[in-house]
Hints:
Helix content is 87%, strand content 0%. The protein is built from 6 helices and no strands.
Amino acid sequence: MIKKTLKKWKRYSKISDAGEITRRYFVMNAFDGALTMLGVVIGAYISDVLHPLTIISAGVAGSIAMGASGVSGAYMAEKAERVKKLKKLEKAMLTDMKNGIHEKSHRFAMISAAIVDGVSPALAAMIVISPFFIVSLGFIPVDFAFIASIAITLIILTLLGVYLAKISDESMVKYGIQMLLVGLFTAFLCIGSTMLLGGYM
């Protein structure tokens, strides 16, 4: 049963190009989720918000919002594109494709894209703020959690760069460094803007 379902999904993915779409959504939204939480963590530190539960609450709320936004936004956007493609195909082939393999494949692509678009930013965000859960259990100090969160963000970005390099068959070092630099640049922007608004290091 499971083998049959997986085989069917693989066929749907091939027909609808779902693999390419979900890979793109995964990278883009994991990137967004990690950088968003980086901003939250840096903003909290500079604004002297040191209570771990406050940061966890903000992080969890942000993760839920990003997840809900990702699922609904991706589903509606993909649905519009897929319906358009299906109608075009129906006109070209002069046949009704309702409940056919192409409609099922497009529906599979819509659902896959929505799930990946919702889960990837929320998951990345939760990983970034994970040190604060450890702080709340009393295992590490809050100052270390801030450093750990920033380090985790930079590691996530570097790994996403390596993943992109693997997809495009390019230099892993080059892509990894590029993504790392984006993370560092974002960190400096967050520090600068928060300090301008009255925060301090």
